[in-house]
Amino acid sequence: MITDPRIEWIEHPDPESWVHAVATEMEAVLAEELAARGSARMLLSGGTTPAPIYAQLAVAPLDWPKITVGLADERWLSPQDSASNAYLVRENLLDRAEVGRFEPLVREGLAMAESVHAANLEAEHAQDACLVVLGMGNDGHTASLFPGSVDLDRALDSEQPYAAMDATGCPVAGDWTRRITLTPAGLARTRRRLLLLRGQAKREVLQRALAGDDVRELPIRVMFGLGGEPMRVHWCA
């Protein structure tokens, strides 16, 4: 158990319980938002970790045509590329639930700067997200806020919801060094923030993050000072 007022730590006994609990919480948040506002918007991350959660959420009895789905970050790839976050979200959620609207971050035919501008315009005019789902790398990155990135300071200081990110030289970024990511300003506009972690190594990285305050060393630390509800961390071994 990790106890810290900046987070709510939820520990699960096995991966199946973890998937079920997160999907159930996401469903409840969306249902609450739909009841209160008549529509809902959520921002999702890619990667293999949340895929089964999205698949379970897709069968939830929600008013899906009134729900908008966006992304926390994206690799500079076509949304049709199987390595893109858009592809993973589409395969596990959008192709299974009749979602009202999807907001990709990479726009076909637009350059990186134009795509970021379009994403920021869309976010500025959109309903604030009631839910954002995030992961964390062993290097302490979240979304595409990578430690050591040449663009990290600019993204951290941005007043816009999204920023371009060049993660060249950041090993965890792999072959996909060009990214679009939520900024702290964009993350601050979300209500329920879920961090999904699996394995002892991720637990130890989070504990190290909670013990310090250098955001540039471990960018996950941006999540501790956003205000609003404490970030809820779902973990299993």
Estimated radius of gyration: 16 Å
Distance between termini? 12 Å
Average pLDDT over all residues = 97
Low-confidence stretches: none
Q: Any idea what the shape is?
A: globular
Pathway: Carbohydrate degradation; pentose phosphate pathway; D-ribulose 5-phosphate from D-glucose 6-phosphate (oxidative stage): step 2/3
Family: Belongs to the glucosamine/galactosamine-6-phosphate isomerase family. 6-phosphogluconolactonase subfamily.
InterPro entries: 6-phosphogluconolactonase_DevB (IPR005900), 6PGL (IPR039104), Glc/Gal-6P_isomerase (IPR006148), NagB/RpiA_transferase-like (IPR037171)
Catalytic activity: 6-phospho-D-glucono-1,5-lactone + H2O = 6-phospho-D-gluconate + H(+)
Topology (elements, then pairings):
Blueprint lengths: L6 E6 L2 H23 L2 E5 L6 H7 L9 E5 L1 E3 L9 H10 L6 E3 L8 H14 L5 E4 L17 H6 L4 E5 L11 E5 L1 H4 L4 E7 L1 H11 L20 E6 L1
Parallel strand pairs: 1-10, 2-3, 2-6, 3-5, 6-9, 9-10
Antiparallel strand pairs: 4-8, 7-8
Question: What key attributes describe this structure?
Answer:
single chain; alpha/beta; Rossmann fold; seven-stranded parallel β-sheet; 7 helices; 32% helix; globular; 6-phosphogluconolactonase_DevB; 6-phosphogluconolactonase activity; hydrolase; EC 3.1.1.31
Characterise the protein shown here.
- This protein has one domain: Rossmann fold (3-Layer(aba) Sandwich).
- With 237 residues, the chain is an alpha/beta fold.
- It has a 7-stranded parallel sheet, with helices on both faces. Strands 4-8-7 form a 3-stranded antiparallel sheet.
- β2, α2 and β3 form a beta-alpha-beta unit.
- Helices cover 32% and strands 21% of the residues.
- It is globular.
- It is an enzyme of class 3 (hydrolase).
- This is 6-phosphogluconolactonase.
- One of its GO terms (biological process) is pentose-phosphate shunt.
- Pathway: Carbohydrate degradation; pentose phosphate pathway; D-ribulose 5-phosphate from D-glucose 6-phosphate (oxidative stage): step 2/3.
